[in-house]
Write a structure and sequence with these properties.
homotetramer
């Protein structure tokens, strides 16, 4: 499949655990069906929302394989394969490719801050040994590493299968620069929920978000309005869903989205410690925000 | 005049100096006429671009009075009256009111960081003694003080004539919050040039900018396209002028705008030291950017 | 007098105002005598503590002249002459020299962030027209401009009478670098009160502080212990006075020091708005801290 | 063994890899002997320097067990056991205890930023199930999480076996506050190499450092001078070794220390990608710095 098909609302899955803290794959299946029923244009497992960083290798593989089987190519699947080591990242990327992923997403997580050269070699080492597209992901808020637009363009130009960029800094100027320097040819995606509206007007091709777990209709309607050039409608839809977008971002996506799934009838357990479940006050606030959106 | 009339492209004037470093009021007159001819919807003297912070009190008054006389109510005039002391700010605000300003703009500049309470009292002390609207201005990049949305809303709610907010952090979330918390009732204006497009889609009522000194047509066309709901056109116009917007912001507005005025035929001298004139390489780059826009 | 004589405890004066907000020079005289009686090794008027940034030019000159007359060369006087413009800074520096200052202190305050080149030219323009030593002052917390060690060394090497550096970032590494790069030849002074102990061990020649307005004995004993190589005693003295040093820094020096002077029997009025007087709770806490030191 | 015995120079081991990237335990044994011969007062495997974050669980256990066997209680061993999950951290801590560690070190690494409550529960969950002391480790530069002094004191007061704090922010004020709030009763250790001198004067009980892999004599002499109250000597020794301390910190400890070991005759391989070996220019500079110290 071509990169061109990745666009619109890219829905991030949570990773459900049972009461013992073990993977709950049936619940994952339900959550995937809810996302697809909700109209997302692609599915992204094992990302920040999916607690990919907190899984054992065996668990990671189980989730990746299960998700790809469940989606079954109805829509594209983009698997987050970031690992602390380059070898581990490549191994996961190849696993995803072997099991039918349409693309992989790579965030340069690390313990030590990486130099530009180290980041470049990291992407090159994976890209050179992979047959599917890579979405480069910049999110200093979780990775501690902020890739400059210069570095991103250097990687995109040198590594053939790095064909997409997900930008989550929340700084709209990054998207402007990606657009200007690529003469509008590099597809970029927004990973900052409360910037969904402006990212689209700046030219983002898609919105990477966990929100469709809770409000798929509003997310989809925003994209539809944008595509139809109905900006007053888009603005109105955006401001309507903004309180939820702010809430899930500030509270931590795994905690808030899992709480929201429970409030809407799907039990997916608590995040894995040290991450904690949303507390009672938070759940109450979330319920009110969801009620306001009905 | 009502606050409602302040909207669209709000053009900031530079403050011309002659070769001796003295005020050059005739050149100021020319630059004001260029802005009005260029179609700006309001004029804002003595702001960041206007080197208001670097003038003696006598010079400040001369520029304020000259500008108000020159504009002569053809369009609204918003005078920046920020001073390090509350007393000085009030004195300037009253001077502006007495000479016919439609509104004043106040940035809480200081040497010591101010507490929220000190900032609140600063606005209240001026507002309680003034008969025209105040545009509250947040620009931590120059003032060193970042007013939270909480504080801004507190001031707006408590001080009757603080009726407008100019936001220059470049963080679109501030505008979202101003909009959400005021139920869309508080007019906010964008002061970050490279965010012009997104600020409008988020609901900004105007764009405070020095760019019309150099490219008034492109600025105005962007606003027209936005108002007509032609977002593809707006996006195209925005990306076209973005290299210039980036350049004048990064190079410092007084230096770059004065250099640009010279390149376009109006001599307004150099900024006042320690600010320096744009160097030869910068002038060359600016010339190329301007050429590309013709 | 030579730069060599500036060392030890350099006491910063407040600028007293009467109940009308006008200069109270007799109170200034009293505060200077208290500092000298308290054993400070030099006096520094019109700095951050002295609200130099909030005075009219006339007031500034009155304070400078009065202080120099009052000190009357009993100990060195270092006058802070920072102004937003280069011309204003030079004018103040020459005024200080003409009235007998031993040195001037210059912080590159500005409204627009200055480039390294602009800062360099600022110091050169003043230095080339002055006959007394300049203490370069780095304090991004108030000035918004952080001079790198590279830039500081460049200025020190190029401008003959920039012979001392006051460092107030609170980052001990800056002092290490100043020491290493000058092979220990550049006198540096600490302007961060809660780093007094470590700055001395790193090689600082003096401590620029407003604390001697309130606890001159403890300040002086610390310096004495350091000079005698009694580091256990120095450590003990430092930790004893640290709560006060923290308090006056966090609360803003003009507010807290003026409050402390009142609590110790010298009325110097309130800081000039927008700065506010220390509130009742703060005064109560300050009283308890002072009581603990008796 | 009691916490009291952990003091002085705490030497961090690297983790050697062979040319295939596999663990090289014999080289680890040599490096441990060099540290002990060099006079360190304790050994700390699997920390930042030891690339603990980049090892598989099997490798991690092999290094922990081998190190404890090699040291064989000649001096205390403090094993870094940080893992992304609470369960993994506890498992490693119990492994270390079972194999004879004197203490463990825990840094709250994570992918998502943790709330104070989550961090607190993380330490409590481990502490409640462990029989040896825990050194709480704060290093936002690698973990992305900065624990306030308030939070640290709360954990220390609530979790019995959190008995030591390692502070690596490089902000001396943190140590001051730990000292003040614990009335000097909480042992704190410095993890910021270029702050070694000042941390000791502020009261640090030890210096956690990888430098003894390269310059054990200078490190030890500094501690000896400090303990003897010879501060002029300590200052001189500190400034002498500072260029090396700066260099290894800025270049990343695994890369620079492994390069330095090679330059001094012990081959320990390259760091694990994405970390890269020190480049030729860096090696040349490091050689010169080491030569200057002979």
């Amino acid at each position: 499949m071509s990169t061109q098909s990745i666009h619109g609302i890219i829905g991030y899955t949570i990773t459900p655990f049972d009461s013992e803290g073990q993977l709950d794959l049936p619940a994952l299946g339900h959550s995937i069906e809810r996302l697809i029923d909700g109209g997302v244009h692609a599915i992204a497992p094992l990302g920040s929302t999916g607690e990919g960083a907190y899984l054992s290798e065996q668990e990671w593989e189980a989730v990746a394989e299960f998700t790809l089987t469940q989606v079954d190519r109805r829509i594209p699947t983009i698997v987050s394969v970031s690992d602390l080591t380059t070898a581990g990242t490549l191994r996961r990327a190849q696993f995803a490719e072997a099991h039918g992923a349409d693309a992989v997403m790579i965030l340069p997580i690390s313990y030590w801050k990486l130099s530009d050269e180290e980041i470049f070699e990291h992407y090159r080492a994976v890209g050179d040994n992979l047959g599917i597209p890579i979405m480069l992901y910049n999110n200093p808020g979780t990775s501690g590493i902020d890739m400059s637009v210069d570095l991103i363009m250097r990687i995109v130009n040198a590594v053939d299968n790095v064909t997409m960029v997900k930008e989550s800094t929340g700084d709209i100027q990054r998207m402007h620069q990606l657009n200007l320097r690529s003469q509008g040819q590099l597809p970029f995606y927004n990973g900052c929920n409360p910037m969904a509206l402006e990212a689209f007007v700046a030219g983002a091709k898609g919105w990477c978000t966990a929100a469709p777990n809770l409000i798929p209709d509003l997310n989809g309607q925003l994209y539809t309005a944008v595509n139809a050039g109905q900006w007053d409608e888009a603005k109105s839809l955006f401001y309507r869903q903004l309180p939820l977008l702010d809430f899930i971002l500030r509270g931590g996506l795994p905690s808030t989205v899992k709480a929201g799934l429970r409030l809407t009838g799907l039990e997916t357990g608590a995040p894995r410690p040290p991450l904690s479940a949303l507390n009672a006050e938070g759940c109450h606030r979330l319920q009110r925000i969801l009620d306001d959106l009905r």
